[in-house]
Amino acid sequence: MEQIDLNRYEVTGILGSGADYEARAAIDRATGAQVVLKRPEPQMIRRQMHKNIEARTDRVLQVYEEVGHRIPGVVPILGYTERTNHDAYFGDDLGNDYRVFVAERALGIPLVGEVKARFTGVPIGVGQHLFTLFPLIRSADHPPFAIHEQLLDVEEQFFNAGYILLDLRPQNIFYQPDSGRISVIDCGALVERDRATGARRRIPQDIHDFYLEMLKFYTTPQSPPMQTRGYRDPYGLRPVTNFEHELDDMARQFKAVPDEGVQGAAQTLIGQIRQRGYSAFEAFRRDLLTYLETVSAYHESLPDFSEAQHVWSEALDWLRDDHWQRYLFRPETDLAGFTR
């Protein structure tokens, strides 16, 4: 990772914009490599409200240089600019200084797409539902629950290096269906493992806050959708705001699941997280995989499972639409393995 000159890169399009960053696709003029340029959200820059985003960028660069470059599954950061005015390069008139950083393009699609695309009818939650919440059809080339396992692998490596990585929401995760691999594109929500705390918190954050995120974003008490509209919208999109309240909501919802095995496996996870009772990472991994296997068996036992698989396949076809072609994703090959 090095300080770079933006003129080395030719912008080819806007990939998306979130609360903190705007991302643009670009080509490295020297190598032809496809990269992404990330800068604070332009309106925040214009209003001089990007100070916290700049601090987040500095934190991302610091931790990537310390440990992130060694962790498979984290998108490589190639370089960063000095903090200066980039109006001439981007062709806008923001009038303030900021830093841009350059990363490799992640392969595949985001598990949850850009929120703005939702207003144009794009089913931005389809990846999350198809591949994590309701993987009713799996590629024969991939092990079960591969996304969950890889998220755990990334977190465990950060944890062993002295950090807890939070905010692993599905919009921060890219997934390439062909290879079955994930890429984490945002590692900004890091806290030091032994000094994990936050404003207005009586109980310091610890690894159980990550475990809660895994349940919130990558499990659900809901049954497989029987209409494609059930795959459209993201699930659990808002960030965790209150540890106890989130667990209370989950416990209440899982009580309504008709299968006692699923109820029991979910309540084991919720109870241990509530007590912050997992003394070892492997213990949580074991209980989560037990839960996922129990849910999978329950879904397969449903009398309308074959019809649910048909609906799943129809939702999968949404990924062939033009919107998803902005990413490094080729549906003809990436989706070829997902057949009944």
TrEMBL record:
Q: Which InterPro entries match?
A: Kinase-like_dom_sf, Prot_kinase_dom
Please report the stretch or stretches of sequence annotated as the Protein kinase domain: 9-340
Leader sequence range is none
Instruction: Report the GO molecular function annotations.
Output: ATP binding; protein kinase activity
Q: What is this protein called?
A: Protein kinase domain-containing protein
What is the native source organism of this protein?
Candidatus Entotheonella gemina
